[in-house]
Amino acid sequence: MFHDPRAVLKAHNLWTKKHFGQNFLVDPTVPGRIVQCGGVSADDTVFEIGAGCGTLTRALAPAAGRVIALEYDRDLVPVARAETAWAEHVEIREGNVLDVHWPDLEKEVGAPLLVYGNLPYHLSTQIILSLLQAPTSWRRACFMLQKEFAERLAAPPGTRAAGALSVQAALWSVTSLVFYVPPGSFHPPPKVDSAVIVMERREEPAVDVGDPAQFRIVVRALFAQRRKMARKALKSVCDNVDTLLEEAGLDGRRRGETFSLDEIGALSRALYNQRTR
Q: What is the pTM of this model?
């Protein structure tokens, strides 16, 4: 049964906190759709980022074998616990998602995680990057994000909508935009539309990058000033850019945003080779 967060907050004499970026789902049809598109089964352990009033947690509980939900707002922790008290396999923890060490959590659970969350817009990049740097610790992620952010994240490398984050995501996952959620589905309504995405983690990286650290360095350089020619953009990471481009077989007059994932992988391998000679 859906419990409207507005009524839940009122019952606990609480209100939304703007400085936490809180926007609670009040459309009763959305939580179930999110659970369904993430493909949860009774064998899965789900880690939810931001339990809030327990709205999505309540929808996840009947489908998952175990749910661990993290909540940063200490006032909402007892609320989420009360809302899920009927489910013994649900645990509400207080904490900051930026402090989560994904490999330790995977070790605790004993298997790669399914990760869900209505992500705070101002933390979305940091959260997703932390997952991408621990790719074997999770199996699938299902997130509610700002619409424009979600569209960029799902954009294939080499397209105009792609950016540094989407390129890094493409290395380790297949990202799909599943459905849009209008502002009226939240309380209070945000000023932007939202979207739900699913990131399906690959068993192996999509391309050989030589070394993941060098790959991240190359991606950041290419997209820091994306209108620059690659030859100029890469000067921040390499003294001999012409040799680097030659080894990668790429034209330095192109902009970094036009490179495919294979081409960025070739640059990463070339930079790694230069630094390890």
A: 0.93
